[in-house]
Every structure is written in structure tokens, then in C-alpha cells.
Design a protein that fits this description.
The structure is a single chain. By secondary structure, the protein is α/β, with parallel strands linked by helices. The protein has a single domain, classed as 4-Layer Sandwich (Metallo-beta-lactamase, Chain A), CATH 3.60.15.10. 21% of the residues lie in helices and 28% in strands. It is built from 7 helices and 15 strands. The strands form 2 sheets. An 8-stranded mixed β-sheet has the order 6-5-4-3-2-1-14-15, covered by helices on one side. A hairpin with a 2-residue loop joins β2 and β3. The longest helix is centred in the middle third of the chain and has 12 residues. 49% of the residues are buried.
């Protein structure tokens, strides 16, 4: 369940020139809305049992369509609600990981995508989508799918709005994070910890390289080694405590829990 009633997600000083990122209040599951002007993207769709609450959250934001649906990898806590979301909302393009897990959730998704004739993109090189002064870039995982697990095959999304950068790496661990650090993704203002903040050697390295001011974990806590690697002064937010809202005018960023 969403940890905060969706109807009280209110933008502070919002206008059409604000970049908005919402991390919906699911614990140990990802669902992230990115919106700018008339454009929007949804990154992951939480678990299937979270679907109705997710749709309620999206309806509360007057969302009717997504330019992009980015499904970072085929774990059920990331793609569980994808089919029902696509039945409810128009979607321009669907980005998927090259990894094939063979799960029931993935099979249901694949069957729907084929039957609905959706535009599906499995990137093998970075794809940049421009939204005026903002952009969304989707990076493929490093390596070949047979050599990678599901998490290591996560797509990595970087949102840029003028001087502000947010890095959203799905559950990328190991080689996928190491590959990310070869791209122009740092320093950044906002970083979502991969794999719900669990300890990983490259996760620590990424934190030190990225030096984010704001960190979000889709969990109720983070691993001890990740905590030690946290940049001095970084503010950490947890979706187990409620939906998290980040807003930017392209020069600065403000982030807070819904309802504050």
C-alpha cells in the first residue's frame, strides 16, 4: 500500500516549468513518476498487489498518458503492475531490459505487449529523449544478458533539467553500476539507491563518485556499508515512510515527504 494518501500529494510552488519526480510510497518496490510540462515517464510499476494504489496515485496527479514506460528489469517488484497500468493509461514507448527471467509476471507482460502491439525498445546504446530544457537518458546494462543476473541487467535512467541531474538506476549492482560510472552521470543532485539500499561494493563507490545532495531508498533502511559511504550532508529519504516528492526549477532542487 502507498504509505501516504495519494490525494495529499501537493506540489509546492509548482508551475509548468518545474521538473517533478515522485517516488511512490511502496517499501521494497519501485514506482517513480517523472514529469515536466506536458511530458511524463513512469519508471517501474511496483508489485501486482500495489497496482490499484499506484493507479490511484497517478490519477490524483491527473496523469492520462506517459511518453515513456521504463521497466528497468523483470523482477516482480518492478514490473508487477505494468500490464494494468498500460490498460489504464496511454503509453508512447516501453523500454525493457534485455534480461529474460522466465517468470509468470514477465510472461504476462510479454503477452500483453505483443497483443497490444506496443512500441517496445530494448536499448543497446544510450537513448536520449529531449523534453525542451529537460531530458531523459536511458542507459543499457553493461555486458551480455546470459552473463548477467536480473538486477545487473537493470536499465539506468538519468534525468537532466538545466543544472539539475537525477540518477535512477533500478536495481543495478556490480558490473551494471560500474558501467554506469563510465557515463557522464556525475556529480548528481538526486540519487536513488539501487536494490533498495542493500550493501554492494560498487554501490559504495557510486555514492562516493556521484556525491548526491539527496538520496532516496525504496525501503525502510539501508545497508551499513552504504550508510558509511553516504556523502557528508546528504539527506536520505525512505519510501517506507511515505511518498517522496522532488521538485526543481533547473537551478535548485527541493525534496520532501508528501503531506509535509
Amino acid at each position: 500500500m502507498c504509505a501516504v494518501i495519494c490525494g495529499i500529494i501537493v506540489w509546492r510552488g509548482w508551475n509548468n516549468e518545474s521538473l517533478r519526480i515522485v517516488f511512490f510510497g511502496f517499501s521494497d518496490a519501485d514506482a517513480i513518476l517523472v514529469a515536466y510540462g506536458d511530458h511524463s515517464a513512469l519508471i517501474d510499476t511496483a508489485n501486482k498487489e500495489d497496482t490499484q494504489e499506484l493507479i490511484k496515485c497517478l490519477d490524483s496527479q491527473r496523469i492520462t498518458r506517459f511518453d515513456l514506460l521504463i521497466l528497468t528489469h523483470p523482477d516482480k517488484d518492478h514490473i508487477g503492475g505494468a500490464v494494468d497500468v498500460m490498460k489504464k493509461f496511454e503509453v508512447g514507448a516501453v523500454f525493457v531490459s534485455p534480461f529474460k527471467k522466465g517468470s509468470d509476471s514477465e510472461e504476462r507482460l510479454s503477452e500483453y505487449l505483443a497483443a497490444a502491439n506496443k512500441r517496445v525498445i530494448t536499448p543497446d546504446a544510450p537513448v536520449r529523449i529531449g523534453w525542451g530544457d529537460a531530458s531523459v537518458t536511458i542507459y543499457p546494462p553493461g555486458g551480455s544478458p546470459p552473463d548477467l543476473g536480473s538486477n545487473e541487467s537493470s536499465l539506468i535512467t538519468v534525468v537532466q533539467y538545466r543544472d539539475i541531474r537525477a540518477v535512477l538506476p533500478g536495481d543495478a549492482v556490480g558490473g551494471a553500476l560500474a558501467k554506469m560510472l563510465e557515463y557522464p552521470v556525475y556529480p548528481c543532485d538526486l540519487y536513488k539507491l539501487p536494490h533498495h539500499g542493500r550493501d554492494d561494493d560498487i554501490s559504495e563507490q557510486a555514492l562516493r563518485r556521484l556525491q548526491p545532495r539527496f538520496v532516496v531508498s525504496t525501503s525502510e533502511s539501508v545497508g551499513g556499508f552504504v550508510q558509511k559511504a553516504m556523502p557528508a550532508g546528504a539527506k536520505v529519504f525512505y519510501t517506507a515512510n511515505g511518498s517522496i516528492i522532488a521538485q526543481s526549477d533547473g537551478r535548485d532542487m527541493h525534496i520532501y515527504y508528501a503531506g509535509e
